[in-house]
Write a structure and sequence with these properties.
Radius of gyration: 35 Å
CATH architecture of the largest domain: 3-Layer(aba) Sandwich
Largest sheet: 10 strands, mixed
Oligomer: single chain
CATH class of the largest domain: Alpha Beta
Number of strands: 54
Helix content: 10-25%
Structural class: alpha+beta
Distance between the termini: 64 Å
Length: 1022
């Protein structure tokens, strides 16, 4: 306080208290950045996590491999790939156990370069010759095809045959999809009887789609053939409570198509079961039927090359999913009808907005649904016509009787000027990777408030150019493959053993081919209509002997269904009918309160390259939307079969498409909202992880080749590299350690070290190649032997690292791998040493500080819990001679001592030159000092470059350095900031230049003691 501030009137002693002891505000704690896979969570962007409970909520728990953590360990296709350990989750748990700082996690999903070659595309596909013209012999000989996707269709047999001279028609519904890597699938059994007792056939190029009766016990025989194994006949049904349920009998793990590399010999399969649609089968009473009929048809869409469908030139194939990760979306939400009821068409209603995933891949549509609820019209018509509503993200397995909220936003409005504008409240920002600039670019106006989705507004709504009374009243359902009608079985022609199957699609008649045992024929050309490939012509030999018979044929319709929609408000035994959510229903049956696990299968991505918004596209063989739901079609009515029954009990409501146009809906949407029917549920659909599902670890090191792999020709390389480039800017993300546990590919681990050196604020902890070979790296056949678990000796690893010529104080590495016990499953899991070191760094900092060596018995005792997670073993016990070899090449050994257990026994960086910075504790000290002083310095940026500002800087920095000295980080320091450092010419350049000199405290790594054996007469005083 200046003397001028005192008020002097009469004599006296004037005292003022000035407190200069305030400690400068310390910067937020900074922790490591970890790159790896996880069960869920935002992907390919850094997310800061402050506790392990938060990590579990955001990314899921640890995944030990072997299916651990999955709802059904063997059902990889439906429930996700948990077959290999996700090392990053263990690293996160290890560090967060210390509670000293947050971590930043980057979850990986498959990516591809914008100029990727065919080999460099992400995702997966099966070889498919279904659409290729080829000679084929069908029937008893039925040769294998070339892989692809096969649909199993089933339907009731009660409507087959001819009644009163007219054929009946039956609908075959898609019950399952089987993916074949090198073979084919067909149904086997008694052929169905057509007109005049003639057997019915549906023949399809590489797969004979004969319509067969199921067996007397209600099972269907499936014949799976391949080019390298004998045909297998497997009996299945579609009752998920039965031991013969198709998901229990068929292989559901795509990785077994290459099982010789990852699984025991003999477990190989050439196929896997993909989607199954239990809800459809159950709703049509086919789950336990003993009288249904079935056929198997290859699934493919149109795409031609010279008039011939060719899957190599088109991505429109259910077995083709070659693309980077894609986000699940909820279809466009639409407004209510405000015009005459008789003119109502839901597809003409105003599109309002849709929700898109923020980076969760397929997890979102498999685990989350969205409800629009609390829909209310304006309560102040004279002030505003805009109403309000809520958006609630719910767990997909909940029911309307027991709602499980994932996230919710209430009192939202479509008024773009309101603080509660739906885009403002949820957020519309999203990120896209800029390949040229190598960074994530952010688009959108409103910050994201949701952890799961962002909103895409219809521009007209966002501009306030639509009717203000509009409210979200329905939605566009997800796309699906089109249905087909009019499959026909023809009676015998001139030759009694010739059967012709005809298909009527789009008012055109196609001949599908022949099924004559021993008769070879050539498919000349073809087209795909309605999702099913049919042949449009056949050779002259066939034409010569085949004509359409005079009897009308039996017909079959092919149906590919969507998820059930709620029909009655009373479904599920709702206590209060107005609590019912119309729209998508995720229960096993309409009146059930148990969720149906097949719901997610309905919403899988149809194929690679599918458009972002199919409602604006025309796609042959695909319905751009499977349905459009609207509350406008919810009508007051009775129960029972007549949905438009007497307008009985107050509050009762039923849904049927077309109700409003038929005059059965509510008089006005206001009446409907007042009755309490103001809520509905919609699905997310189309998410994709961008991974090769045939690999246990889709980002495995063995998928890259040193000297060959790069971002263009390897999706794996590009995925890792993009994650690293994302965090290369120190102003974008804070970190002091970088780890990618399990990544051992030399070019990428070298990139980690270079990245940290360029940032100059982080230490890379890298793992060495071939120290341990997990099963996911394709070494199952030899992993049980010790020699294969330790394929490289310490000497070999040391020599390999020496030959790499890595020389940087910003990198470090450890040897060998260690074993942990997963605390959720009890499984023993081999993990790379970088995982354990995350825990050691955290616990060492908690006990002391970052400038103490993270090694030795006090801070590196893994057996004593220094790793934050249990460490119970090492892949190799390293003797003293091997520890010396490793340490000479800057590899820090993890030693095993009989009496004291496992301990980190080294703390070198990868720097070759012998300076203070060749030790981890000094490098971490200097990183800490630079980072903290940089943050302190921000307070004086743009201040006047004068002595007073220099004094202020010294006043901030010197107490900080003194505190580090007190805590044994440095032994001495000197700060110089005066005219000798900040000279007049620097002042003219707007530069303040300070010089800080420190003497880092060194760790004791060698203790030398002389024991002198003296004679009896010697004096110790000499």
């Amino acid at each position: 306080m200046s003397v001028k501030n005192f008020k002097f009137v009469s004599p006296g002693v004037f005292i003022n208290e000035i407190d200069n002891s305030a400690i400068p505000r310390s910067a937020d704690a900074i922790g490591p950045l970890i790159i790896g896979r996880s069960a869920k969570g935002l992907a390919m962007q850094p997310v800061t996590i402050r506790s392990y409970s938060d990590f579990v909520n955001a990314f899921g728990d640890t995944v030990p491999g072997n299916g651990g953590g999955s709802r059904d360990p063997g059902d990889v296709y439906r429930y996700g790939n948990y077959q290999s350990p996700m090392y990053g989750t263990y690293a996160a748990k290890a560090f967060l156990a210390s509670n000293v700082a947050p971590i930043t996690y980057v979850r990986l999903l498959g990516q591809q370069h914008t100029n990727a070659t065919d080999d460099g595309t992400a995702g997966w596909k099966t070889p498919s010759n279904l659409m290729t013209p080829m000679p084929a012999v069908f029937g008893a000989g039925h040769p294998p095809g070339g892989g692809g996707a096969y649909g199993v269709f089933i339907g009731p047999s009660s409507s087959l045959g001819v009644v009163a001279g007219s054929p009946n028609s039956t609908t075959l519904r898609l019950a399952a999809v089987i993916y074949s890597n090198s073979g084919s699938v067909k149904a086997s059994g008694t052929f169905c009887a057509g007109p005049q007792g003639v057997a019915t056939y549906l023949v399809h190029t590489a797969a004979a789609g004969a319509v067969v009766n199921c067996q007397s016990d209600g099972t269907l025989k499936l014949v799976l053939s391949s080019s390298n194994t004998d045909s297998r006949v497997i009996s299945v049904n579609f009752d998920d409570t039965s031991e013969n349920f198709i998901r229990k009998k068929l292989n559901t793990n795509p990785q077994l198509v290459a099982s010789g590399d990852y699984y025991p010999t003999g477990s190989e399969r050439d196929y896997w079961l993909g989607e199954t649609y239990e809800q459809t089968i159950r709703d049509n009473s086919l789950a336990s039927s003993t009288t249904y009929v079935a056929t198997v048809l290859g699934l493919a869409l149109s795409g031609t090359s010279g008039g011939t469908p060719n899957p190599s030139t088109t991505s429109q194939n259910p077995s083709y999913h070659r693309e980077a990760s894609k986000e699940a979306v909820a279809g466009w939400f639409i407004g209510q009808d405000t015009g005459p009821a008789e003119d109502f068409h839901p597809e003409k209603m105003q599109k309002l907005f849709r929700l898109k995933g923020r980076g969760h891949g397929s997890w979102l549509h498999k685990n989350v649904k969205v409800s629009i609820t609390n829909i209310r019209r304006s309560n102040a018509p004279g002030v505003t016509d805009y109403g309000s509503f809520s958006v609630v993200l719910r767990h997909i397995n909940d029911t309307d009787n027991n709602i499980q909220v994932v996230e919710r936003f209430d009192n939202l409005t479509l008024d773009p000027t309101s603080p509660n504008f739906v885009a403002r409240r949820i957020g519309d920002k999203y990120e896209e990777w800029d390949t040229t600039a190598r960074l994530l670019r952010v688009y959108g106006e409103y910050p994201n408030q949701s952890n799961y989705v962002y909103i895409e507004m219809n521009p007209e709504v966002e501009a306030g150019a639509t009717d203000a009374t509009l409210l979200p009243y329905g939605y566009y359902g997800p796309p699906k493959f089109s249905n087909s009608t009019g499959f026909a079985s023809g009676p015998a022609g001139p030759s009694s053993d010739v059967e012709v199957a005809r298909v009527k699609l789009d008012e055109k008649m196609f001949v599908m081919g022949m099924n004559i045992p021993g008769f070879a024929h050539q498919i000349i050309g073809g087209t795909a209509v309605g999702g099913i490939l049919v042949s449009s012509s056949y050779n002259a030999a066939m034409e010569a002997g085949t004509v359409e018979g005079s009897e009308a044929p039996s017909t079959f319709n092919i149906s590919i269904d969507h998820v059930r929609l709620r029909v009655s408000a009373s479904d599920g035994g709702m206590t209060k009918l107005s609590d019912a959510y119309f729209g998508m229903q995720t229960t096993r049956a309409a009146d059930s309160t148990i969720s149906d696990p097949s719901v997610g299968d309905y919403h899988n991505r149809l194929y690679g390259g599918f458009p972002d918004d199919p409602t604006t596209s025309t796609i042959t063989g695909v319905d751009s939307f499977s349905y459009i739901f609207s509350l406008d079609d919810v009508a007051k009515g009775g129960s029972g079969a007549d949905l438009y029954g007497p307008f009985g009990a107050v509050g009762r409501a039923v849904y049927q498409s077309g109700s409003r146009a038929a005059g059965k809906g509510y008089t006005s949407y206001s009446d409907q909202l007042d009755a309490g029917f103001n809520k509905f549920t919609a699905p997310f659909w189309g998410g994709f992880d961008g991974f090769d599902i045939t690999k246990p670890d889709p980002v495995w090191n063995g998928g890259m080749t040193e000297g060959t792999s790069n971002e263009m020709n390897s999706s794996i390389f590009h995925t890792w590299k993009r994650a690293m480039d994302t965090i290369s800017d120190p102003e974008y993300v804070n970190m002091n350690v970088l780890a990618a546990p399990g990544l051992t590919f030399n070019p990428l681990t070298a990139n980690m070290v270079n990245l940290c050196e360029e940032r100059s604020d982080s230490l890379a902890v890298i793992d060495l190649p071939s120290v341990y070979l997990p099963a996911a790296e394709g070494e199952y056949s030899t992993r049980s032997s010790k020699a294969s678990r330790i394929p490289k000796t310490p000497l070999q690893s040391a020599n390999d690292l020496r030959d790499r010529r890595l020389d940087s104080s910003y990198g470090s590495t450890f040897y060998p791998w260690v074993q942990t016990r997963d605390e959720n499953t009890g499984q023993l899991v081999w993990i790379p040493p970088s995982v354990a070191m995350m825990g050691v760094f955290g616990s060492s900092q908690a006990k002391t500080d970052v400038w103490f060596a993270p090694a030795g018995f006090n801070r590196g005792g893994l057996t004593e819990g220094a790793a934050g997670i249990p460490i119970v073993n090492v892949t190799e016990r390293i003797v003293s001679k091997d520890r010396d070899r490793l340490y000479e090449q800057n590899i820090n050994p993890i030693a095993s001592f009989p009496s004291t257990g496992l301990v980190v026994f080294g703390q070198k960086t990868l720097q070759k030159k012998r300076t203070a910075l060749d030790r981890i504790n000094v490098r971490r000290l200097v990183i800490y000092l630079k980072k903290q002083i940089s943050i302190i310095s921000n307070d004086i940026l743009f201040e006047q470059n004068v002595e007073a500002t220099w004094s202020r800087f010294r006043g901030l920095v010197e107490p900080f350095l003194a505190n580090v000295k007190t805590q044994f980080g440095i032994t001495d320091y000197k700060l110089v900031l005066d005219e000798t450092t900040t000279t007049p010419d620097l002042i003219d350049q707007n530069v303040m230049y300070a010089k800080i000199m420190i003497k880092p405290a060194r760790a004791i790594e060698f203790i030398a003691i002389d024991f002198v054996i003296a004679s009896s007469g010697a004096s110790f005083d000499d």
